[in-house]
Amino acid sequence: MHSQVFRYFLDWLKYTLGELGSRQWIDLNINMYVSAGAPLLGATEAAMGLVSGQTFGLPIPELDARRMAASFSSATWM
User: Fold this and answer.
1) Which candidate, 34, 28, 39, 31, places its Cα nearest to that of 5?
2) Distance (Å, whole) CA 21 – CA 40
3) Could you read off the pLDDT of 7-31 as tens digits, one per residue?
4) Which H/E stretch holds residue 4?
5) d(Cα 74, Cα 72) in Å, to the nearest integer?
6) pLDDT digit string (tens) for 34-55?
7) Which terminal CB of the chain, N or C, has fewer other CB atoms within 10 Å?
8) Cα–Cα distance between 60 and 56 in angstroms, integer?
9) Which whole number is the average pLDDT over 2-8?
10) Reduced to 3 DSSP states, what percent helix, strand and coil does the chain have, rounded to the nearest 5?
11) Is there a contact between 26 and 14 (Cβ–Cβ < 8 Å)?
12) Dist CA 13 CA 25 (whole Å)
């Protein structure tokens, strides 16, 4: 998933410059985009679950929570 902030920026750009103007601005100023941030404006709690096994209040052992978080396909992209 792309970072929501970047998506909002692109929507603002299109609103401000129009469809053609925004495309020209992107072609001129952006060579490559790599989404290194978490989706939805940040997900530090998800990273904590992956690293420490934080259970978020679920009635499961921390080791099971850590294993479960590591099994999610999006965990490798954090």
Assistant:
1) 39
2) 27
3) 888 899 999 999 999 999 999 999 9
4) helix 4-29
5) 6
6) 766 555 555 677 777 777 777 7
7) N
8) 10
9) 74
10) 65, 0, 35
11) no
12) 9
Instruction: Enter the tokens of residue 23.
Output: 């495309």
Query: Which value, in Å, is the radius of gyration of the alpha carbons in the chain?
Result: 18
Distance CA 29, CA 17 (A): 14
Do 9 and 44 meet the contact criterion of CB atoms below 8 Å apart?
Answer: no
Q: Are 75 and 69 in contact (CB under 8 A)?
A: yes
Residue pLDDT, tens place only, 56-67: 777 888 888 888
pLDDT range class, residue 1, cuts 50, 70, 90: very low
Distances in Å between the Cα of 8 and the Cα atoms of 12, 69, 74, 75 are 6, 28, 22, 24
